[in-house]
Specification:
InterPro entries: Elp3/MiaA/NifB-like_rSAM, Methylthiotransferase, Methylthiotransferase_CS, Methylthiotransferase_N, Methylthiotransferase_N_sf, MiaB_methiolase, rSAM, rSAM_horseshoe
CATH class of the largest domain: Alpha Beta
Strand order of the largest sheet: 2-1-3-4-5-6
Subcellular location: Cytoplasm
Structural class: alpha/beta
Helix content: 25-40%
CATH superfamily of the largest domain: tm_1862 like domain
Enzyme class: transferase
Oligomer: single chain
Family: Belongs to the methylthiotransferase family. MiaB subfamily.
EC number: 2.8.4.3
Number of strands: 19
């Protein structure tokens, strides 16, 4: 690759989807930085525009097409030539086929080919042609790529890639491949290095972190990994995603025993109906999920449980939905990501006919949202008139004099920036906040003492 072609070029990355995509974007950014490129805040200022895509829901395709189309009306780039690139899950799924609908795209790179994005873009600048690379097996060089972290105090740490579960509605195993765990010692060494770089919080990433190590050791070793990472000195540990069928008692014990593991667990249920769960190929029942929740709360009292729930899965009846509604009322989630089912071609669920009218599905969705809002508000009320330690991430979008951070329970926390104080002295620091307001989606209060 003639890397000098990219030196001095400006780039902009827009990321859609999950935390894995965010980390992939950081790696692409780091690679471009190492080749002499400069990040800018707007696509109009960029010689290179990259879209890191998600294909979990149909709206993602529509959004990508709209974003790429809007690039046609951008003013001329600083260098006089703009390269448009599409990466991530849609790129892996559709490959060269994307060019049929996106005639202004120059580069397409799949989820297993991000280590080659620099050379692909350089070739596009050099010959003006289309360049596509969507390998089926992840390039071993991807995990050793440099990356450009969005913040200095938090880091994504991938522990595995791919998924073996093949939920009937999900396209992820087809675009991310099968489970492949990173070496145990490599992960621990990476976190230790992040601690030396003053990172305060990490998020361990995997499509199903609970099965980490099964492909290496013959059995999951996520609990062992949590304990080893906790010994590095990192202050806050989070992780996602966590499949209920693989959440073992030893992992719950490790969460309870390791002080750095935050008291928050995202445990996607998807449906409260055992019948629908079977159709989804989730491989647990309603009763098993509820029993798991009980065991978690016995070991970790006060834990914040969050979830994903799909409404309108093909064939879902009113009785099925009422089972979901009652489960949400029983578990009392601190937050939930609720979705109306989106058909994904190539998945088993896409072949199931469903005569349920959309207005019925929408009504169910709204009823579920109402329950989640009630339980989320109830959970936050439990922090009212307490002191909460918040890791400050920046300021509120609505008020740049209002600090914004995250509690151990993953709640958004607001507190006024002291008069005359420098915001930079607070970002990435932990502050104590006396909570006097507890709303559905945030806490707010006043600072107690200074940042630490």
């Amino acid at each position: 690759m003639n890397s000098s072609i990219l030196s001095g070029k400006t780039y902009f990355i827009r990321t859609f989807g999950c935390q894995m995509n965010l980390h992939d974007s950081e790696r692409v950014s780091g690679l471009l930085d190492s080749l002499g490129c400069l990040e800018v805040g707007e696509p109009s200022d960029a010689d290179i525009v990259i879209f890191m895509t998600c294909c979990v829901r149909e709206a993602a395709d529509t959004r990508l097409y709209g974003q790429c189309s809007s690039c046609k009306s951008l003013p001329k780039s600083p260098s006089g030539r703009r390269v448009i690139a599409v990466g991530g899950c849609i790129a892996q799924r559709d490959g060269e086929g994307l060019l049929t609908n996106l005639d202004n795209v120059d580069v397409i790179f799949g989820t297993h080919s991000i280590a080659h994005v620099g050379e692909l873009i350089a070739q596009a600048f050099e010959d003006g042609d289309h360049h596509v690379r969507c390998e089926e097996i992840e390039d071993k060089g991807a995990t050793s790529m440099p990356w450009h972290r969005a913040t200095t105090f938090h880091s994504w740490v991938p522990i595995m890639t791919g998924c073996n579960n093949f939920c009937s509605y999900c396209i992820v195993p087809y675009v991310r491949g099968r489970e492949k765990s990173r070496p145990f010692e490599q992960i621990v060494d990476e976190v230790a290095g992040l601690v030396r770089s003053d990172v305060r919080e990490i998020t361990l990433l995997g499509q199903n972190v609970n099965s980490y190590g099964r492909d290496i050791f013959g059995k999951p070793r996520f609990a062992d990994l949590l304990r080893a990472v906790g010994e590095t000195g990192i202050e806050r540990i989070r992780f996602t995603s966590s499949h209920p069928k693989d959440l073992l008692p030893e992992t719950i014990n490790a969460m309870a025993d390791v002080p750095a593991v935050m008291p928050h667990l995202h445990l996607a249920v998807q449906s409260g109906s055992t019948r629908v769960l079977k159709e989804m190929n989730r491989r647990y029942t309603r009763e098993q999920y509820i029993d798991l929740v009980r065991s978690i709360r016995e070991k970790i009292p006060g834990i914040a449980l969050t979830t994903d729930i799909i409404v309108g899965f093909p064939g879902e009846t009113e009785e099925d939905f009422l089972q979901t509604l009652s489960l949400a009322e029983e578990v009392r989630y601190a937050q939930a990501f609720t979705f109306i089912y989106s058909k994904r071609e190539g998945t088993p669920a896409a072949m199931i006919d469903d005569p349920t009218p959309h207005d019925v599905i929408l009504d169910r969705f709204n009823r579920l949202v109402s329950v989640i809002e009630t339980t989320a508000h109830e959970f936050n009320q439990g922090q009212l008139h307490t002191t909460v330690p918040a890791l400050i991430e920046g300021t509120s979008k609505k008020d740049d004099c209002m600090l914004q951070g995250k509690s151990p329970w993953n709640q958004t926390v607001h507190a006024p920036l002291p008069e005359g104080a420098d915001i930079d002295s607070y970002i990435g620091k932990i502050v104590d906040v006396d909570v006097d307001v507890a709303k559905t989606w945030y806490l707010s209060g006043s600072l107690v003492g200074g940042p630490r």
